Each structure stands twice: as structure tokens, then as C-alpha cells.
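Give me the 3D structure for DNA replication and repair protein RecF.
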Amino acid sequence: MGFVRVRFNNFKNIEPREMRWFPGLNLLTGGNGAGKTNILEGISIISGWGTLGRGEKNSSIPTWESGSSEAQLTGEIDSEEIIKVKVAKRFFIKVDDKTVTASDLRWKIPLLSFLSDDMSIIEGSSASRRRLVDMLLALIVPSYAFRLSEYRRGVRQKALFLKKGLPSMVVDRALLPLAAWLWRMREEGVGLLSQELEKLSELTPARIELSLKRGGAGLCADCEEDYSRSLFCYREREAALKFPIVGPHRDDVAITADGRQASSALSRGLRRRTAIALMLAASDGVKRKTGKSPVLLLDEVTAELDGEGRKILFDSLLSRDSQLFAATAEPFRLEIPCVVHKVEGGRIVESRQNK
Ligand SMILES: Nc1ncnc2c1ncn2[C@@H]1O[C@H](COP(=O)(O)OP(=O)(O)OP(=O)(O)O)[C@@H](O)[C@H]1O
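Predicted structure for DNA replication and repair protein RecF (355 residues):
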């Protein structure tokens, strides 16, 4: 499963040309600002994930100089279906000329992305750990993305009530089944990640353990009861803070290495390897549950890894049957079987089969 061709039109600094992709590893090399991340972003968009979480608005995607407020992406996947995405204020998506939703697209061509910011998954904010579990679940549970966005809408509504000093019991009642369901799903997701991670011990020399920390809760195992009891405990605090502090929007994933908090127990290089291992574990989990290997996007893949770390990483990447897109700004000398695409000034100037 993967992309055969992608054409970018009016998309950031990318020249409007067709790019040809290959099965296995497609390695994008080139200096800073060459357009590697923009290419990965385009591939993420035509897989139904939108922009790569760089905090940009859709309106900043079209080329600055063109005067047009629309960008277009066209991709052919190996099932010979053609995906067309128009990015204006919203995304308009078609597969073989039929309109589909972003979540239909994610089921058609599952993809997981791993960005340089995600390297902070071990020591950074809880949002990046939730993002990983949410991406995994969105690819294996059909209604997950929809229910998560319903829940988020409810939380925003509750925040408005709290801000105005109004009682939020009605919203709490509506949120309870959604919150409990999300906790159950996330616990299963974290369990699946842990199982797959155990099989990737070459990337994680320490024994890594994961557990879900329910946001503002954890008073008892039963999800419904936990939500109700925790709300009761924190009602006054929520009213004082004017913000909902109980629920899945505040979840975190605790990560330990040999029983110690991973952020302090692991060196920088090992934190990076562990973060990448988590992403690969998510990919293996999707394959186990759906039978499909997700396309993988990895940005700044070699940063901070020493020679041995790089070798272990690429051995692991090349041992899977996914199509991979990895970007690196550093000169790349490893003799590995892949196609190296040299990116300069927003276009691929050379594609060469390595080895
Ligand atoms: N809407 C846009 N229109 C035109 N150019 C844009 C737009 N958005 C970003 N760019 C340009 O894209 C370039 C950044 O590209 P990108 O982030 O893909 O680089 P990169 O090859 O990944 O480099 P690095 O290794 O530094 O991350 C910048 O030069 C920026 O000016």
C-alpha cells in the first residue's frame, strides 16, 4: 500500500511537477528550507491528516507569490485510485472523482507521521503522547476520530459555561459516556503499543513501560464511575479555574525505562530512539489490527543519532513492508537499499537508487 505519484500545484514552495515515489524507503535529502517537510506535509494532507501540526492555517498553504488562495494535490496510490485534495479555507477531498471525508481517506491509505517535534514525546508535553495514541486509534477504530471530536466540542462548550460562571452539570452528563468510552479505547491503545514495543527491543535498550494516566482522574478502575467521582471531587476547583480539568483532554501516557521516568533515565539519543520505536510500535499495531501497513512519514530522522543509532534505526525501518518517506538535512552516507531524492528549491532535482 503506498503512493506511486504525487503532483503539487500552488503548494508552498514546491514546484508544480509530478513526483514519482517507490515502494520501501524514499529518503529526502537537502539543505534547510529546501522543501522536504513541505513534501511530507503534502503527503500527509492527501492521506486525510491535514497539515503536519505546525500550527498553520489552511490559508497559509498556497504559494505566497501566486495570488491564488487555493492549493491542489493529486496523488495516485498503488490500487490505481486517484486522490485529489483542494486546500482552500477547508479541505475538499475526492477519490476517483467521488467526494469522500478525511476519515474515509485515512481508511483507504493509512499513514502515520512522525515529526521532529514528536521527538519530544518522551520529555515534552502530554499533547504529543496523546497525539500518538489518537493517531493509532483513528486508524483501527472506525468511529474514534468522530467521537473524539464530539468530545472536544463538548469540552469547549463546558469551558464556556465555566467561564460565564454557569453550572455545567448538563454538559457533564452528555460528556460522561464519551469520556468513559475514550478512556477505554485509549487504555486498549496504550496496551497495544506496549505489546508491539516489546518486540522492538533493538531500538529501546531499556525496558520501556507505558500506562495511561486518566486526566484529573484515576480514583477507581471503572471509567464511568471514575469520571463521575472525579468531577464531584474537582467541581469547585473547575469552577475556580474556569476550565474543565477532568477528562480525556487532560490524559497523559506515563513512560518509564527500567522502572524510572524515561525523560530522566534515558540519554537524548536513546530518547529519540525510544520515540521512534513508539511510532513504529503504533504502525505494527495498525498492521496487526487491520492487516494494512501504514505509510510512514519521518521528518529529520537522523538528527542526534550516532552512527550505531542510525544503523539500528534503518535496519528496523527496512525490515518492514511499509512505504516510508524520511527526510534528513544531513549528508547521508549509509549504504542502505532505498531511493534517495535530492530536494533543492522546492523540487526533486535527482532520484537515485542507493545500492
Ligand atoms: N505558503 C508558502 N509559500 C511559499 N513558500 C513557503 C510557504 N510556506 C513555507 N514556504 C517556504 O518553505 C520553506 C520551508 O520548507 P521546509 O520546511 O519543507 O524545509 P526543509 O527542507 O524541511 O528544511 P529544514 O531541514 O530546515 O526543516 C521555507 O523556505 C519557506 O519560506
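The chain has two domains: 1-110+293-355, 118-291. Let me know if you want a second pass.
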